[in-house]
Structures are given as C-alpha cells and as structure tokens.
Specification:
Layout: H1 3-14, H2 22-36, E1 43-47, H3 53-60, E2 64-69, H4 72-85, E3 89-93, E4 106-112, H5 121-130, E5 132-142, H6 148-157, H7 176-183, E6 187-200, H8 204-214, H9 216-225, H10 230-245, E7 248-249, E8 252-264
Parallel strand pairs: 1-2, 1-4, 2-3, 4-5
Antiparallel strand pairs: 5-8, 6-8, 7-8
Length: about 260
C-alpha cells in the first residue's frame, strides 16, 4: 500500500464517527443545493457524501442523485436518512480520486466539506470534472483557512504525524484565489458566496468534546495522545478551547464557510 492509500485508510477509520455532526451540516446542505440550482430530473453526484445530508436534500428537490463516500459506516447512516425521507439515492462506497463513473455522467457535482480531505486536490478535482458534463455545474462548500475551522485544522495538524509529501491542508480549498487556480481554464462563471454554520453548545469545551468523538482529525489526536502523551493532549485541549472562544457567543459557535459554484466549459 502506498503512502496516499495508507493516508486514506487512516481517514476512513477516523471519519466513521462523524454521524453526530450531521445535524449541524444539514442547514448548510440546503444552502449548497440551492446555490447549485439543483432542478428536478438532473443527474447529481454528491462526492464524499458522508451521512447523505446533501444527497437527500437534492433528491427531495427532484434530482436523480448518486452519493459516494469512502466510509461504509457513514453510508449506512445515509441509507437510513434516505429511507426516512422517502427518497431514492444510488449509494456507492468509493474514492473521489478514483470515481467509478463514466465521463460526463452528471449534470451537477456537489461536495459539502468532503472532497477537501482527498490527499491530492488536483486528482480529486480532475475526477469531479471528468464525470461532469460540459455545461454542468460543480459546487462545493469549504472552510476558509483564516476562520475558525481552517485555523483549527492548522492547530490539529500540529499535533498529528506529518502527512505524506504532497498532501496539503484541506483549508486551502477555502481560499478563493487557490480555488480559481485549481479550477483554471476548465470552468467559467466562477461564483463565491459566504454563509455561517451556527453550532449550539454550552461552552467552547462542550463543542471540543463533541469534536473529539466525531471529527476525523480531532479523533486521531485523542487516539494518538491519550495514552502516549496526556500532557500534550491537555495542551491541545487548551488550544482548542481558546480558539473556539474567539467565535463563541450566546451558546453559539459561529463557523463561516465558503461556497463555490462554476460551470464546466
């Protein structure tokens, strides 16, 4: 197994605990689907679909939806969510760097905070654009590096072993200049928009405890340090709480995110 595949396997295990966070991503899913202009009858691919909040939202809008994720535990929850909503989604376990679909198979390709964790952005984006038809829409939600989640990604990364050479921070997907550079001449009509995820919590430390149980990188920090270096784990927790406090007011943690939409040429 090469270093990139080993990296993906580590992520696959860490993200299987994400389920409890789906509630706070659900309103953002509607924003992304609306921003992408999803219409009845369109063929929509939801990349790194997680528990299916975007897939289900798009299916309820009348689209013919396919959802793909690396983690089978999240797909199990996604199937349950689709069943409860009374919609049909074609679920696939798979990798955004190797999408199991034909060229130009979809009218819309979406990703909510998902494709950003692929180790090679150029490979993931190349695959997303390959399966998108000319004139189709690509749209995704990402975390700006200068705001809470992006900054927390940097903090968390400093407590983890370094990734394989060539793996860059997922937060770079939240920089419009980098997004424009990555999309390059393959698209036109690039549009950016900002929105805010509102996360209820009793304190910054309450949200940190949730993150320790559910957010992939934070789960890994706890697993790596709880026995080997508890003092360093406590240092991480203090850093997390201090950063979260900057964005916390009236029992709400404010997490701004970036939405990108473009048309494939």
């Amino acid at each position: 197994m090469d270093s990139f595949e080993a990296f993906k396997q580590t992520q696959k295990q860490a993200w299987k605990h994400f389920g409890p966070l789906e509630a706070i991503t659900t309103p953002c899913a509607a924003k992304l689907v609306n921003r992408a202009g999803v219409r009845p009858g369109q063929r929509v691919l939801d990349v790194a679909c997680g528990t299916g909040v975007v897939s289900v939202t798009a299916a309820r809008a009348g689209a013919k939806v396919t959802g793909l994720d690396l983690t089978p535990e999240l797909l199990e929850r996604a199937r349950e969510n689709a069943s409860i909503a009374g919609v049909e989604v074609d679920w696939h376990e798979g990798d955004v760097e190797k999408l199991p679909f034909g060229d130009a198979a979809f009218d819309v390709v979406l990703s909510e905070f998902g494709h950003i964790f692929a180790p090679r952005p150029e490979v993931a984006l190349g695959e997303m654009l390959r399966v998108l038809k000319p004139g189709g829409t690509i749209a995704f939600s990402t975390w700006p590096p200068e705001l809470f989640v992006g900054r927390m990604m940097a903090v968390t990364a400093s407590y983890l072993p370094p990734p394989p050479p060539g793996v860059v921070s997922p937060a770079l997907w939240g920089d419009p200049n980098i997004v424009k550079q990555r999309l390059g001449a393959t698209v036109k009509d690039i549009l950016f928009d900002r929105a805010t995820m509102l996360v209820p919590a009793l304190s910054p430390s309450h949200q940190r405890v949730v993150s320790e149980k559910s957010a992939g990188a934070t789960v890994r920090v706890v697993a790596n340090l709880k026995d080997s270096d508890p003092a360093r784990l406590e240092q991480f927790r203090r850093e997390f709480d201090a950063l979260a406090a900057e964005y916390f007011e009236d029992n709400i943690l404010h997490q701004d995110f970036l939405m990108t939409r473009a048309t494939k040429i």
